[in-house]
Structures are given as C-alpha cells and as structure tokens.
Design a protein that fits this description.
single chain; 88 residues; 5-stranded antiparallel sheet; 1 helix; 5 strands
C-alpha cells in the first residue's frame, strides 16, 4: 500500500485525518490500551506491534489496525520508525 491508498482507506473505513508520528530507534512503550481504534501506515523503519495474541513486525508500506481496548505495545527497530496514525 502507498500513502495515497492509505488515505483513501481512511475515508472508506471512516477514520479521521492521519497524523505523522516519529518513534526513536529501538524504542518500546509499556503495555497499554486506548479507547479509540487506530489505523497505522508505516512510512519508514520497522514498527513492531505486540499484543496478547503475538508480535508482528511492520515494514514501509505495511498497515495495521489496533481495535479500541486491545492491550498492546509499540516497538521500533534499530532505525526507529515514521508512521501515519489515524483514529476513530
């Protein structure tokens, strides 16, 4: 998927505008939940999503969706990551 396709998918899925987020290299957050659903597009780097169901690494062009109430953490690879995040 490219950024244009991601932005179209946002409209199709009822998301708001995406915001760009920069994650530092080899960073990790504590496990947490959100009261919103997030749709993420990886622009650069490696974005790792860890949930109770497992861990998945996402590369540039990949997307992932995190449903509201999902216990998760975000991690990055050695080069960090730049992502676009939309919420609903």
């Amino acid at each position: 998927m490219n950024e244009t396709q991601f932005k179209q998918a946002l409209k199709d899925k009822g998301y708001g505008e995406a915001e760009r987020a920069e994650y530092r290299q080899s960073s990790a957050k504590d496990m947490h939940v959100h009261d919103i659903t997030a749709f993420v597009y990886v622009v650069s780097g490696e974005f790792v999503l860890r949930t109770e169901d497992g861990t998945k690494s996402h590369q540039p062009g990949d997307t992932c969706e995190v449903a509201a109430g999902t216990l998760h953490t975000e991690e990055t690879g050695p080069d960090g990551a730049t992502v676009l995040i939309a919420r609903k």
